[in-house]
Amino acid sequence: MTQDSPTNYEDEILKLQARLAELSEEKERSTDKQRKNVQRINMLEAVLETVPVGVVMADETGQIIHGNSQVVEMLRHPVYNSADVNEYEQWVSYHADGTRVKNHEYPLSQVIVGNLERAELDVHYQRGDGTRFWMRIIGKMVVDAEGNKIGATVALLDIDKQVRLTETQNLLIKELDHRVKNAFSVVKSIVSQTLRRENVPAQMRETLDERLNAYAAAHARLVNMTWEKALLSDVAEETAGRIGADRVTTSGPLVLLPSREALAASMAFYELGTNAVKYGSLSVPGGKVDLSWEVTGEGPDRILAIDWKESGGPQPQAPTRKGFGSFVIDRALSAETKGRVRMDYNKSGFCWNLTMPLPVTSKT
């Protein structure tokens, strides 16, 4: 029977000591990692409790697992720990038309079940005390390091004052529109009666009446856009429809013009269209008008160029006397848009061009 030598025991002891040291280091690293994780969680909780919006979090099944104190304060009821997306109707919300928001319509459901990265919805929410307010819900998917979905979070924003202000603004605009239309009617009646008494030719009365109607139409278009902006394409297509849509082509990118520029462009198109019908390409069969626009440059340096090109009509002649129409499409338009107008009386047809800076508030 043989016995292990002391040297063998010493080797085993050394190995055990080395392993214990490794385990101790691993434990220390694990403890340090846990401590850092706890710190991160504490920091996240601090952020959630200080942000001025409600935050709700759900796991990958849609179960509500957390909501910050802002949720309780805003909604005036505890955070509902809905078990999954099929229980979201616990959160009572309504659409603008008064219909109830369904489970699948909530942004959290859209993100969890619909696999959308982001979803948004404005709702009329019923608080715990029975009152209602407008709230915006913004949902966002949460993924792990490998890109796997592990849950979702939603932000709840109180937009009640914003919505109420917009509603009040719309009511005031409608009232203003009603009063302006009445004023237009009164002005037209006074002008018509005055011109008749003065024996002004019928053609002149008709021209003035048409100009007033064109201005009223431009005003109505801006009212539909809450008196802020108007689509250039709408202005162009309205002109095309008035003078002959089958003979006028319009093309160009999406451009929103501020109210001042939109009114000026509308009146200019009216005068150009009237001249085309009376004297230009649309005064004869086969004549056409091409109305196009383009945007160049970036940001505050964007430039809008609008072109009106006639073809197939009689050879244009430069006017010997400039009337009101010429004033509208040239000097008045240049002043209103801070742009530059160029007119060419080519043999092939009359050409008109406006180049103007595009306000930074416009979108293309």
Describe this structure in words.
The protein has 364 residues and is an alpha+beta fold. The protein is built from 8 helices and 13 strands. It has helices at residues 6-50, 69-75, 107-112, 160-197, 202-224, 232-243, 259-278, 324-337, and strands at 54-59, 64-67, 93-94, 118-126, 132-143, 149-158, 229-231, 248-251, 256-258, 288-296, 303-311, 340-346, 349-357. The strands form 3 sheets. The protein has a 6-stranded antiparallel beta sheet. Strands 8-10-11-13-12 form a 5-stranded mixed beta sheet, covered by helices on one side. 22% of the residues are buried.
CATH superfamily of the largest domain: Histidine kinase-like ATPase, C-terminal domain
- What is the correct CATH architecture of the largest domain? 2-Layer Sandwich
How far apart are the first and last residues' alpha carbons, in Å?
A: 96 Å
Total helices: the number is 8
Per the CATH scheme, the topology name of the largest domain is Heat Shock Protein 90
- Report the major sheet: 6 strands, antiparallel
Instruction: Write down the Rg.
Output: 35 Å
Number of strands: 13
The portion of residues forming beta strands comes to 15-25%
Mean pLDDT: 82
Measured as a percent range, the helix fraction is: 40-55%
Element-level helix/strand string: HEEHEHEEEHHEHEEHEEHEE
Tell me the strand order in the biggest sheet.
2-1-6-5-4-3
What is the total domain count? 2
CATH C-level class of the largest domain: Alpha Beta
